[in-house]
User: What shape does this take?
Amino acid sequence: MSIEQLNSENPIGIFDSGIGGLTVVKAIQAALPSERLIYFGDTARVPYGPKSQVTIRKYAADDTAILMRYQPKVIIVACNTVSALALDVVEKSCGNIPVIGVLKSGAKLAVEWTNNNRIGVIGTQATVCSNAYACAINQLDPDIEVISQACPLFVPLAEEGFINHPVTKLVAEHYLGEIRKQDIDTLVLGCTHYPILRQVIEETIGGGIHIIDSAEAVALRTRELLSESGLLNRSGKASVPHLLVSDLPQKFSMLYQLFMGSELPDVDLVEV
Ligand code: DGL
Assistant: This one.
């Protein structure tokens, strides 16, 4: 199906490796309550961050193909790792359907916020090694210094629901100790799982540092894009997101309720 055949009733497709992208779902729901949302969490293959570029690009193509079955009017890549290493794969796999990645929105917001031109970025191993944030930030402002730190254990901790757990505090201390000394005034949560651990991250990094969560920026960009293309759903009817997962871990329901503040809607298992 091409974009010309779509209408405002078509859904917004969103995907991530696991539950992290729910932070984006929440922001989209708040900004665009009438939109139908299809969310795919690749819970059978999470985490993506420690995997190779070849594997991440393959997963990105699979995830896009799953969402394309639902004829989305836009695809949101609610995963920084895929946004950093495989956005072109998603774009290629969905023809002329527009694609929005979290990385560019986060980079733009960080550039708008920094006053001292020193931005910290935390993300998965793959995102940090790709240098994609530094490139996106320096494309907007070459004078900004970007200090990056991979925090791979944050993803399993978030997936486990270890939100305020002493282990998470210990791990945060280990990862953020060095970046805290770097005189940054802005810290980008460059992985959609990290806002789930935001409180611990904020406490550990210390006061006076502005935290960037790209979810809200992505929601605003989505509204802008749908509005420009005449595809904004103005029905006024709120709908629950349609959830797809590749595995249903026991904790999924509990975590969903915790982050979304609502009961778990029906979840469909899909094969990847
Ligand atoms: N939430 C994803 C991201 O934003 C992926 C985390 C992972 O699976 O390692 O990068």
The first strand starts at residue 12 and ends at 16. The chain has twelve helices and ten strands. The mean pLDDT is 94.
